[in-house]
Design goal:
Layout lengths: L5 H161 L2 H22 L4 H18 L4 H117 L4 E2 L3 H15 L12 E2 L7 H26 L1
Antiparallel strand pairs: 1-2
Length: about 400
């Protein structure tokens, strides 16, 4: 047997080794293509069904979230519109409150003026009533004095008539003198005014005349009647003046009563206005409480909307991740996949592929990128390739054995 040196053995073995290595690489590639073909032919329906179901659920979830988001956005718009309307109402209420404050201050000032007028009118009414009472008292005194004077005159006239009938003129003159003096004194004491001195003078004159005997009885009577007429004229003037004063005071009293009724009406209106102002204040306070509650409700709605927006953001991120996963899974059963991700995702994808097609993608390095092109799906062609591979392996083994010999 021919002995082969080590160097010659290496020269002979190295081509065989490289050929076998190339064959193994080709075999691994064919095995991977075969696995991908099996995955597509046997598991594609299941994977596609799961992917479709996942896509449908994802689409439904996104649609539901979009609908909820639109609903809350519409609620927010309605609330903002209502809030603006309430703010406008609040501004109107504040303006109305300011106007009511001005009106209230004016009414209070008017009320104070009315109270001053009432006090002044009450004082005037009291003074007028006192004046009326004093005038009535004076009028009654004058009427009593007039009655007394008329009675005295009647007595004198009766006495004169009686003396004339009896013919006792001298006695009558003496009586007339005495009566006239008495009447003059009484009139002076009673303060009858200008008529009292006239009566006194008349009486004294009559008495002196009677005593002196210088005039007749008729002249005395005429003088007395003249004095009485002058007194009656003066009394009538004073009575008329008192009546005019009384009527004027009564007119002022009626005006004061009318003014008092007006003041009562104004006080009633003021009370009603105060009640309305109190009611408006209560309405303003109630509106302010409602606005505060509505602002709290709006703040809560804004908080809920922010939560929904955060949820939408999270779901959008989840949607992106799910779509990437769907892309990867879809790429597997479409046999056109480019994976560029971290090692954790590659491990999960390896497990998925291992369970489905009994082969795995090596992804120990996160920077690895694997691209798989489509492979033949015809099993007959694949069997022919496998037969060719087996033949090639047998030839390689035989060639190696021959080389070793």
């Amino acid at each position: 047997m021919e002995v082969i040196e080590r160097s010659q053995f290496s020269i002979i073995l190295n081509p065989i080794y490289y050929a076998v290595t190339d064959l193994v690489v080709e075999l691994e590639a064919l095995t991977f293509k075969f696995g991908m073909s099996l995955l597509e032919s046997e598991q594609s329906k299941i994977v596609k069904g799961k992917i479709s179901e996942l896509e449908k659920r994802l689409s439904d979830t996104l649609s539901s979230i979009e609908g909820e988001k639109k609903h809350h956005e519409q609620q927010l718009k309605d609330m903002l519109v209502k809030n603006r309307r309430l703010e406008d109402d609040n501004k109107k209420i504040i303006t109305k409150k300011d106007e009511m404050k001005i009106i209230l201050s004016e009414l209070e000032a008017k009320h104070q003026g009315i109270e001053k007028d009432e006090r002044r009118l009450e004082s005037n009414v009291y003074e007028i009533q006192s004046t009326i009472n004093q005038l009535n008292y004076e009028k009654n005194g004058l009427e009593r004095e007039i009655v007394d004077i008329r009675e005295e005159i009647r007595i004198i006239q009766n006495s004169i008539s009686l003396q004339q009938e009896q013919g006792s003129i001298g006695k009558g003159f003496r009586f007339l003198f005495i009566s006239g003096t008495v009447v003059g004194a009484v009139a002076t004491v009673a303060s009858l005014g200008a008529a009292a001195p006239l009566l006194a003078v008349a009486g004294a004159t009559a008495g002196a005349t009677a005593s002196a005997g210088a005039i007749t009885t008729q002249i005395c009577i005429d003088n007395i009647n003249k004095s009485i007429k002058e007194y009656e004229c003066e009394r009538e003037v004073r009575v008329n003046k008192l009546e005019r004063t009384k009527s004027r005071l009564m007119s002022e009293e009626s005006q004061l009563k009318f003014r008092e009724s007006q003041l009562r009406d104004q006080r009633l209106q003021l009370d009603n206005t105060s009640m309305r102002i109190s009611k408006i204040k209560e309405e303003c306070s109630s509106a302010e409480r409602e606005i505060a509650q509505f602002e709290i409700h709006i703040a809560r709605q804004k908080y809920e909307i922010r939560k929904l927006e955060d949820k939408m953001k999270q779901i959008s991120e989840l949607s992106v991740n799910l779509k990437q996963i769907l892309l990867y899974v879809t790429g597997i059963h479409d046999v056109a996949l480019v994976v560029k991700t971290d090692s954790q995702f590659c491990l999960k994808l390896n497990n998925l592929v291992r369970n489905l097609g009994k082969f795995e993608i090596l992804a120990s390095n996160p920077q690895n990128a694997f691209k798989f092109s489509s492979c033949p799906t015809n099993s007959v062609e694949f069997c022919k390739m496998r037969e060719r591979l087996e033949e090639f392996k047998k030839k390689a083994i035989i060639s190696g054995k021959r080389s070793l010999k």
